[in-house]
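User: I'm new to structure prediction. If I give you an amino acid sequence, what do you actually give back? Let's try with this one:
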Amino acid sequence: MEQEKKETPVEEVKKSKPKKPKVNKEVEKLKEENALLTDKCLRVQAELANVIRRTGEEKEKLLKYDGEEFIKSILPVIDDFERAIEMDTTTDEKYLSGFKLIYANLLKTLEKFEVKEIDCQGKEFDPYKMEAVLKESIIEEEPNIVLAVLQKGYTYKDKVIRPAMVKVNE
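Assistant: Good question. You get back a string of structure tokens that encode the predicted 3D arrangement of the chain. For your 170 residues, that looks like this:
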């Protein structure tokens, strides 16, 4: 009987070694995967940075105009005070002077919170700050000029929170 020829362990290793071209293909494939994952990681980091920035901006805006609703609710009270003061026909001077004192204190408080009246009497009509509710034709006046302020407008910081209602010359 012939003996079967057995391969030595070294020969087995040589036979089981992958060929170089196959190794190169695997390395190239891994390099491509690495490049894709690196690119994906950079994109995710950039998107996260954008989300953090946008969230910070939104938060800053919310904090900046935090008291807007409160101020809007106080403005009609100021209007009522102004109407009461304009009715200066009462005989009780102390009553009227009390109204004027409250009105002045309320205006100081609003000013402290950067609430300002929109000055528009005799100025050119600005649709961003004013609302034209009446029009009149006066030849002596220039066109598009505010003739009368029917209801005052107010800004809060740099934002118009209530436009002025005005009468404009055509």
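You can read the tokens as a compact description of the fold. Here is one thing that stands out. The radius of gyration is 39 Å.
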